[in-house]
């Protein structure tokens, strides 16, 4: 196996499992740990993985995006804490946007049941979970359904959004960085998110720490567009402070 084949195998393993360990890769591939570390550095330089202490995880890109089913298995305790903290930011909002993805789905579940709410969403999973609530009116955006995320996109969704003024939007992303803002792999998804940012009075970003510093293909918002960012304590405090200098309050749970 030459270096290119080995790096392809490492990348495939990271995408299948969600992360890879240097020691295990070295044993599986029959090479030294230093060779694996060198391969990971090359993959990181190409924007395909992010290295961690002792391993790496894949970066979502135009050519790779995890499915909703996969996301429900990763960082679940962190996502649950983030969702609970994000839902506490509801305030007096009467109309709420819930983004696609597992963390926004958990936010939807955490919304109060004892007050009237109108929830707009592209997520079939979030809509299904909220539709039976007595005090909640659900507006599901129309459009093409993406099978991997079970969410609607394209001009039908953006046209519906253009007629709304939304009090509060809970928005996710595949990556967030101070330099490039919030990004996602698919242009159709990016268009929906960008329209939500435009028509919403308040915007909250929620995402686990490994989203930070990651950059995907399509940019849809600046960090400064958001009043609050909710993440977990895996994001170092020093890095959180750097994001706060761009405007939003940073909540680490």
TrEMBL record:
TM region(s), chain numbering: none
Signal sequence segment: none
Gene Ontology MF terms in the entry: DNA binding
InterPro entries: ArsR-like_HTH, Carb_Metab_HTH_regulators, DeoR-like_C, DeoR_HTH, NagB/RpiA_transferase-like, WH-like_DNA-bd_sf, WH_DNA-bd_sf
Highest taxon listed in the record's lineage: Bacteria
Pfam families cross-referenced by the UniProt entry: DeoRC (PF00455), HTH_DeoR (PF08220)
Keywords for the protein's UniProt record, in alphabetical order: DNA-binding, Repressor, Transcription, Transcription regulation
CDD domains: HTH_ARSR
Domain annotation HTH deoR-type: ranges: 3-58
SUPFAM superfamilies found in the cross-reference section: NagB/RpiA/CoA transferase-like, Winged helix' DNA-binding domain
Stretches of the chain forming a coiled coil according to its record: none
Record carries keyword Transport: no
PANTHER family: GLYCEROL-3-PHOSPHATE REGULON REPRESSOR (PTHR30363:SF4), HTH-TYPE TRANSCRIPTIONAL REGULATOR SRLR-RELATED (PTHR30363)
Functional description taken from the UniProt entry: Repressor of the lactose catabolism operon. Galactose-6-phosphate is the inducer.
Protein name listed in UniProt: Lactose phosphotransferase system repressor
Organism: Streptomyces cuspidosporus
